[in-house]
What does this fold into?
Amino acid sequence: MRQRELFALAMLMAMLLPAMTGCLWDKDEPPPPPLPSPFDFDEPIANTTWYHFGNWTDALDFSVSELNLSVNATPIWSLGTYFGIGATTFEPTIGVNSAGTLFVTNWGGLGRGTHVIRSQDQGLTWEDVGPYPGLASGQVLNSNDPYLYVDPWTDRLVKFDMHALAVMFVEYSEDEGESWSIPYPGSGVYTPQDHQSIASAPPGPDFDGPLLHDTVYVFCINTGNQGPLGPFCDTSIDGGHTWEGQVIGWPSGRTQCAGLHGHLVGAEDGAIYRGNPSCDGPAAYRSLDGGRTWTEHTIDTAHQSRGHEVALGTDEASNVHALWIATDDLPYYSWSQDQGETWSTPINVAPPGVNYTGFPTIAGGADGRVVFGYIGESNHSEWSGYMGIITDTYADNPLITTVAVNAKADMLDDTEDCGSVRCGGFGDFIDVVIDKQGRPWIALAHNPAGEEGIAGTLVTGPRLRGPLEPLPPIVPGGPETLGL
It folds into this structure.
């Protein structure tokens, strides 16, 4: 009996020994390598670039399994830069046509008016294309506020100046500023006429009557404290030559609490939008009939707008995107897929370390891709220009790629409260556009350099139109491109 038990035990050990040996051997093998991080780029991440989620959440603090990134949010190595335009600016606006030609405003004031500064080589060189006094077309030799706009459906370059706080003039160019039309005056109701903005769109679903131009033009202005407290708007069916007469830019019977407003923007579906605070919070005002009537759509009541600049942009799918600076000094972003009827839950889109912001602006690219801009800093002393990019805005927790276009030592202003008051060349607002290649461009002022206008962009980064892939790299700019 004893021998049989010993034999059985020996057989059991013979069967278990290989498995036990394998377990012991596995302990001596190195652990499997970690999964590659999507932020392991060929080049190190610059100290002016952040990959983050909303509410200052650094994406690099998460493990690969925790990131849960969608295919449309694949991180792309990004770097910001800027190019000086060689001229001063005030409340800079920027436009870009389908050929990639850039235009930025230069404010000349009394006796000189607004000039348009043009670049045909992605910001490397700039030239003044007027319009100049003495030409047969003439020029309005006064400008309280400069403004330019490029019609994305026709490529027409529109210069929309406000003269003596009384009337706006439309001057346009069909050849990138080589020649200009005569000035065509807009209509007015109350004075002062201030804070003008112009945009275009195809005729909307409720547009009625003939159209004598490829797109409908709409402008809105702030009427100050005379008359009702709200913007007035006007419509042109012949490309800005004549105007139908100003109408209230809000729903009849609705009380208004703010007259100043953000830039107008048109959508592919014919809707035209204007952002400004309603009495309830930051709001989108929408017109489906070419600016003749307007509806009001409050975006958020929990994060009240600190100022009048509620920025709106539209993407290629006619979705609407909004950015505003709330009373906590932070930029909040929200989107709508139903023409502003309902809005997503707003998120703070500032990168970690940026605590104070101002001058919001926004533009949409392909469906679900957006760029927003603002100035910001951490301690009320060193203001930089920022662009934030989202390539999958409908994700539950969208990845944000933020770049500063300037180095911290190359600050754009050092005024303590620059982000919340008029500040040198920034004035009341800045501007951002996306070119056909999908590259974003932001118009800013470099106040220490004599309030020179600068055009910020990406050296490379995510394309905001077409396939989601890196933009072709360009030569970086920086302070050496300043010309004043």
Observations:
- Residues 1-25 have pLDDT under 50 and may be disordered.
- The two ends are 106 Å apart (CA to CA).
- Residues 268 and 318 are 6 Å apart (CA to CA).
- The first strand starts at residue 49 and ends at 53.
